[in-house]
Design brief:
This protein has ten helices and seven strands. By secondary structure, it is an alpha/beta fold. Strands 3-2-1-4-5-7-6 form a seven-stranded mixed sheet. It starts with 22 loop residues before the first helix and ends in a 16-residue tail after the last strand.
Length: 285
Amino acid sequence: MVNPLAGRQPDPARRSPRPPPPPRQEYQEFILQRIEEYKNGLTREDLLAIGDEAVRELESGGGDQYLLTEVLLLEHVDRIIQRRLRLPSFPRWRQQHRALREAQREPTHWGLDAGGALARFAPRLENDDITIIVGAGALPAALFLAAHDADVLLLDQDLGAVESAEQRAVTEQLSRRFQALVVRFGGWMPDVAPTLVVLDPACLSVLPAQDRARLIHDLQQRTLPGGVHIALSASAGRQVIALTSEALRRHYDAWQSEGRKRGGGMVAVKPDGSGPRRPDTGPNV
């Protein structure tokens, strides 16, 4: 697996990474997301009015050449909304999307440290790697990793923060790689085996010590051998006092760890010889 302080070693047992989706498929998903966002902001009367407009256009344009079905009507409603939103054509979207994705792969686009461990690690991710982000305060890091084609799972205890993160991922056209869940830290966790875990120290600092220790231990057990945990630096201006790197390192005695004296933050690498991860938690849900 990957060590951000060294090169990536090939793993012959690793499955072949899945190819990225075709651009045309991503474009269709982009169009459908924008249309659904627009519909969600309409009243029932507004939607019915668009339906009436679709019926008139179909009847005036098609004559008796086809039967007006519900599927045909819904498709035409989407076309009317697409016209109203002036959504780009595929060639124009592809050009804009390529420029956007290149910008999103730069850490400074998200206000992240260009020389930090996260910036060094992200280009080495493979597109079947799973990353877990603990705390919605680390959303910029989550979107940065999603832009590098990693599967990102953001966890937070606040429903509003999770919903806001999901909406931001849609706006940034990164929802294909991004998921967010509401969990109680120190309790149940989804059964995934991450390559990378990113910790928001401000999020950890507000947890009871027992829940914090249980959460970190659970994440350590699930992390693949050679996987990495990165605690972000404390953000200036936040009202919550973040957990220090020294306090975090106490949980990583058996891992190779590195703390930063200025600005905080920590990198810890799981030993390759670690034991198996926890069994499926499904029966405990």
